Amino acid sequence: MNDLTASPLSGDQVGSLYRRLLAHLERGDDLDALMAVLAAIEALPADSPAKPLLGEAAQHAIAIWQRLERHQQHERALRTVFESAQALTELRALDDVLQNIVVRGRALLGGDMAWLAGSDSDDGCFRVLAIDGANSEASREMHAPPNAGIAGHVAKTRAPFTSSRYLTDQSFSHDATIDRILADEGLESVAAVPLLADDDVIGILIVGNRYQRTFQPWEISILTILAAHASTAIRNALAYAAKQQALREAEEANRRLQEKIAALEFAAEADARLNRQLAKGAGLQEMVEVIAATLQGRIAFLDPTGRVLCTAAAPTSRDGGNDIEALLTPEVLLRIPAALGQSLFAGHSVPVELWQPGHGRVVAVLSGDDHLGSLLIHTSKPLSDDEVQVFERCSTAMAVVALLADRKSFSARRDVHLTVRALLDPSQHGDKDLATRAKHHGLNVEAPALLVLLAVERARVAHCLRQIPVIFRQYPHIATEIDGRLVVILNRSDPAAVRDELHEALQGETDTTWLGCVSRTVYGMAALAEAYQSAKRVIALLGKLRRQRCIVQEPQLALYAALFEPHSAAAIADTIEAAIGPLLAYDTRRGTELAPTLLKFLDENQNARAAARALGIHVNTMHKRLETIGKLLGAWNEDGRTVEIHVALRLWQLQQNERDRS
């Protein structure tokens, strides 16, 4: 450079400067290279004849570079717009399209932050659909009323908008919340263009910078073109989403239709199987086998008392084999009545927790209001709604089969009834075939036997009769209903144990009242008939004494029953009052136990020491109580009053609501 300024320029030196300018323009060097040549020209001596021309040439070169740079910017912007349009058309997911729009909009204008605002169909507010370059979460949650903010202004004017001083620009309505968020972001300048779909504004694309700047018209034009492409891409994405949704709905509808067709075919096949079994007169066992094969599970049919009558498992069952009855443990059987009660109330099957991993259901088998039993299923996976319906229809088929079986056994039950009546009627004991008929039903009339007479409410007679085989299933027995009472004859010789077993079994009948009598051990038909008449008298006496829910042994009350057979309940009460009324009144008033003391004294043949030992008291206490009793009853052990008082005390004891004890 010093050589250029030290002496006048030669022609080669001037040409060198021109060539440098042209070379920089040709290579597309940056502006700094041209500015360096300009600086060298300006450093020439003022009296240099070539300096003005060289300076003018440098200025022209810089102007040419700037025009080329603008053209290149426009070219790059257009290329970016077209690339964006192509990229947007390739996107399918709406969220991806929206995010791509703001990223490309920010890149086109060199913005610090860009977002796309959309109008909410519910309240019309503008909310952020996608955002890029934000520093805070609040910016992502921005929403402005429809008549405020940049989005509201552009949506109303439907035209692009720019501002180099956003926060102080008064050309549009501000929203305080939006202003505070954008101030926190440090935004100064913004440019916004609408996304139009025909006459509707479907979004606002906004680009902002964190410094003051003026957006050039060509930049707004480029952003507008991007917005147009974005609008098309959004509509395409929405249309694609709608198409995909419609396709999914069509596929789902087709799947449901196929499932329904399969369910109908399954139900039709199941009905056909059941009908074929009914047509050929299949029994309960055959029916449960068909149900197990149809529903691919394990099936049990239980009678109304919970006793398992028959079981089956599907041939292809993989959940543990056929031994379903072995899995019905006492713990499991305790869960079934509650579930069965729900089924009876609801009129359909209900789930029940059974055994091991799997799923259980139970449904009541009904004929009108008559409960015939219950159908139980266990499967490795839950039954579908259609399979549940088939299972419930199976219960109807089981009801038909159970009724048919009941009809088949009607003659057998009738013969049992006639046989028991004949055994209890001495006038029919001359029938030589009577013992054989009884033996055919499992009773040996020549072996030791007990007779049980049970009085229950009329509505519960049939139910209790069905329980008898469960209670005495381990012993030969025969049972029927005579005159509204249950008569059971069984080959056993332990009346106390039978009484206890029957009492325990009937404790579960909480919704009914009952009275029972167990005879002494008898031999032969004549003794059975006598025991029956005595048991009837005992039951009648218990009724007169207003006893409920108790089982007694016939020998204990036979004498009293025969003695007071013609007496009414009121007459018996008067007898007790006349004999021991003052004693009972004293016990009630003082809380003493003189009546039980006197009864035990008489039971021990008036032995004070033995009675005291039985009551667990001192003999002196016993004598004091007897002295008090004498004051209350007078000379109770004279003039034959002892028997009268003893009988009255025994009747009083029978009136108590405690269980009779031997």
Short overview:
This protein has 662 residues and is of the alpha+beta class. It has helices spanning 2-6, 11-27, 31-42, 51-90, 94-109, 137-140, 149-157, 176-185, 217-279, 284-295, 324-327, 330-346, 385-408, 410-423, 434-440, 461-471, 495-506, 524-544, 554-563, 569-590, 594-603, 608-615, 619-633, 641-655, and strands at 113-119, 126-132, 143-144, 161-163, 189-197, 200-209, 298-302, 308-313, 350-352, 359-367, 370-379, 450-456, 477-482, 485-490, 514-518, 550-553.
Query: How many domain regions?
Result: 5
Instruction: State the end-to-end CA separation.
Output: 141 Å
- Share of helical residues: 55-70%
| Rounded radius of gyration (Å) | 53 Å
CATH superfamily of the largest domain: GAF domain
CATH class of the largest domain: Alpha Beta
Spans of at least 5 consecutive residues whose pLDDT stays below 50 are 1-6, 657-662
Largest sheet features: 6 strands, antiparallel
Percentage of residues in strands: 5-15%
Total DSSP helices? 24
In the sheet with the most strands, the strands line up as 3-2-1-6-5-4
Q: Would you tell me which CATH topology of the largest domain applies?
A: Beta-Lactamase
Round the mean pLDDT to the nearest integer and report it.
82
Give the name of the CATH architecture of the largest domain. Answer: 2-Layer Sandwich
Shape: elongated
Structural class: alpha+beta
For the secondary structure, the number of strands is: 16
